[in-house]
Amino acid sequence: MIENLPPCPKCSCAYTYEMNALVVCPECGHEWVPAEAEAADDATTGQRVVKDAVGNVLQDGDSVVVVKALKVKGSPSGIKAGTKVRNIRLVDGTDGHDIDCKVEGFGAMQLKSSVVKKA
Predict the structure, then answer these.
(1) What are residue 58's DSSP bridge partners?
(2) Which residues form the Protein YjdM C-terminal domain (predicted)?
(3) Mean pLDDT of 72-90
(4) What is the reported pLDDT for 22?
(5) In whole angstroms, what is the distance from residue 26 CA to residue 13 CA?
(6) Is 117 exposed, middle or buried (CB count within 10 Å of its CB: 0-12, 13-18, 19+)?
(7) Long-range pairs of 29-36 with CB within 8 A, sequence gap ≥ 24
(8) Are 6 and 21 in contact (CB under 8 A)?
(9) Would you kindly state where each structural domain of the chain is located, as residue ranges?
(10) How many angstroms separate the most distant Cα atoms in the chain?
């Protein structure tokens, strides 16, 4: 039995009660599973988590190191593995490019988080 039952997510009624595995609102009749409602709240209010190639969580302003050589369109040489990139910014890019940064010698570009490691 849950001691402090959550209020109804639809009408905010505080007089909810348990019925088997569900929590029920007597005012609007809404029924829900409390664990699923908490997971849905975390998914909608939580921020997007971006992880690097080894699983570290990245944040705006982090420094990263490129872990594999990258070809750059229009450049005779690409970005070498081991290149350090400072002050990244996480974005909702296209085709999985979720890091916006400036690479020394190449300028502004977007990288995929799967090709970098947190420094």
Answers:
(1) 50
(2) 50-119
(3) 92
(4) 86
(5) 8
(6) middle
(7) 34/2, 34/5, 34/6
(8) no
(9) 1-43, 63-118
(10) 69
pLDDT in tens, 29-66: 888 887 655 555 555 555 678 999 988 999 999 999 99
CATH for 63-118 (2.30.30.40, 2.60.120.1440, 3.40.1010.10, 2.60.40.350): 2.30.30.40
pLDDT digits (tens, 9 = 90+) for 85-108: 999 999 987 888 999 999 998 899
88, 84, 91, 90: which is closest to 119 by C-alpha?
Answer: 84
User: What is the structure's pLDDT at 74?
Assistant: 85
CATH number assigned to the domain covering 1-43:
2.20.25.10
DSSP symbols for the chain: --SSPPPPTTT--S--EEETTEEE-TTT--EE-HHHHHHHHHHHHSPPPEE-TTSPEE-TT--EEE-S-B--TT-SS-BPTT-EE-S-EE---STTEEEEEEETTTEEEEEEGGGEEE-
CB 69 within 8 A of CB 59: no
Residue 22: both structure tokens together: 């569900």
